[in-house]
Design brief:
Length: 518
């Protein structure tokens, strides 16, 4: 765990969960697995504060626990999972693209709460969607449930591990911590729920201040005081499935750039056919026959079987090996290779070294057609930045410079790790810059929020335009311009974070593929 990663984890925890949770999380990242007693002693926090912080971290899968043989429980931070907080907006946007607003809110609620029952998610999302609808319109629970089922069928959401039911025995005391298990067969099975109802709008402040008992309110709203039928069955976002989707999109885009749109559509169809049956860490998709691929092409996509076979042959013969042939049955069996070539948009010399593997300085000058002085300067600069490495091959045992070959080469995995480290550092800097911008304009932001609240209240009571104009003028023209500049800067920082995270995903995927590659 590098210092840049630790710093980024700390910033993410502080921004999303506050100082106490950040302190506990950072402590576990730096010290490794620790029992509760050590966490309390070393952080100086109260026992109750530590327990609540650990509950929050466990709820969001950021910390795991393990029961030791001696009977005490140890807690361990999941650094990689903490870094995934950075990718939450991308998960939510993908859900919106695939499953519209309902899918977006389902994924957003699960990410915000860590784990939820299906019934709780459906009610919450239906209420939120109803709030955005015109008066008189509501969102039906059945529509939200349908989208939830689709997300589970495509494995974007999954069941959480649960504690097995153990009959209570007076002789054997319960364990200090439950052992959670997951049934692979039931991981994506949605419980049969008869959720009947519609989303509800939030009541006004006047209606809430009448002191109505909670039980009476629940009865009036149609909510039962009994536990829901899916009580104890919790769901979470399947992050690996989203990563698989991102990877598939990258492969389709690479095929389109390399060949044409028809080739990319064929590969997209193959990936869609095997998205549920292929593990996110598998090097290849499940074999698919040419006949199956032909039948699964999008409706209205005019391509005959013979042309499809020609495209599949071209894809299989391409040096980058996006598609591989694994048999001849069913018109030919084909797979999509997940470990495709690692593209690079680096300078000409870097691309040259990637292709030729080892070159002397004179060869670099000749092949790249770059003047000697310029090539020398560029090679030394890349050498100092660890993008290329220098290998000495002596002709004689004395290692005399005049009788030694000096070969430049590129260690791609090492370069990828270095770039990944710089990306983590960049995101941490961007987050600190956003916090600085917000902190410097805190007074103006609070004033703007107060004015907006007053305007919303007056509009709700039917205030006249002149009154509203007078309230709006509480923020002067220079202040309004300053707010616009702040908004523009923060938006740029947010966009930059998302762009850097896309690079992080590509680099992490490449590094993981080199580790898995035999």
């Amino acid at each position: 765990m590098t210092q840049a990663e630790i710093k980024l984890c700390s910033l993410l925890l502080q921004e999303h969960f506050g100082e106490i949770v950040e302190k506990i999380g950072t402590y576990l990242i730096r010290t490794g697995t620790q029992p509760l007693r050590m966490i309390v002693n070393d952080t100086g926090l109260l026992l109750d504060q530590v327990k609540k912080a650990l509950c929050v971290l466990i709820q969001h899968n950021l910390v795991t626990y393990q029961l030791q043989k001696r009977g005490f429980v140890e807690y361990e931070a999941q650094c990689k999972r903490i870094l995934r907080i950075l990718r939450y907006p991308r998960y939510i946007y993908t859900a919106k693209t695939l499953y519209s607003d309902t899918g977006e809110l389902i994924v957003e609620e699960l990410l915000l709460n860590g784990k939820m029952t299906m019934s709780a998610v459906v009610r919450k999302v239906a209420d939120r969607l109803t709030e955005t609808m015109e008066d008189g319109k509501t969102m039906d629970y059945a529509d939200v449930s349908s989208t939830f089922v689709r997300l589970a069928d495509t494995h974007f959401v999954q069941r959480c591990p649960s504690a097995p039911e153990i009959p209570e025995s007076p002789e054997a005391p319960p364990p200090p911590a439950p052992t959670l298990v997951v049934n692979e067969k039931d991981m994506y099975v949605v419980p049969r729920l008869n959720l009947i109802g519609k989303g509800k709008r939030r009541r006004s402040c006047d209606e809430e201040e009448n002191g109505e008992p909670k039980a009476k309110k629940q009865k009036r709203d149609g909510e039962s005081l009994e536990p829901p039928p899916d009580d104890g069955i919790y769901w979470q976002v399947n992050i690996d499935r989203f990563h698989q989707h991102f990877r598939d999109q990258g492969i389709v885009s690479a095929v389109a750039n390399r060949m044409d749109q028809t080739s990319s559509e064929i590969v997209r169809t193959m990936l869609r056919m095997s998205e549920v049956t292929t593990s996110s860490s598998a090097p290849y998709t499940q074999p698919l026959s040419s006949n199956e691929i032909f039948r699964s092409l999008p409706a209205g996509y005019n391509i005959v079987k013979q042309v499809l076979d020609q495209y599949l042959t071209l894809l299989a013969d391409d040096p980058l090996e996006f598609v591989g042939k694994s048999g001849d049955s069913g018109g030919g069996m084909y797979t999509v290779s997940i470990l495709s070539g690692f593209g690079s948009r680096c300078a000409r010399i870097f691309r040259l070294l990637l292709r030729k593997k080892h070159l002397e300085q004179k060869q670099v000058e000749d092949f790249a057609m770059i003047p000697a002085k310029e090539a020398k300067d560029m090679l030394y600069k890349m050498l100092s930045e660890n993008f290329v490495s220098l290998q000495e091959i002596p002709k004689t045992p004395d290692h005399a410079p005049s009788r030694t070959f000096y070969l430049y080469t590129v260690n791609v995995p090492s370069s990828a790790r270095m770039l990944l480290h710089r990306c983590y550092k960049s995101v941490a800097n961007l987050m600190e810059r956003r916090q600085y911008e917000t902190r410097e304009n805190k007074r103006l932001l609070e004033k703007s929020q107060r004015v907006e609240a007053i305007l919303a209240s007056m509009q709700a009571t039917g205030a006249e335009d002149a009154q509203l104009q007078e309230i709006e003028e509480m923020i002067t023209a220079p202040e309004r311009q300053q707010l616009e500049t702040l908004k523009r800067n923060v938006n740029k920082i947010d966009a930059s974070e998302n762009q850097v995270d896309e690079t992080i995903f590509v680099l992490e995927s490449f590094i993981e593929s080199t580790i898995r590659r035999p």
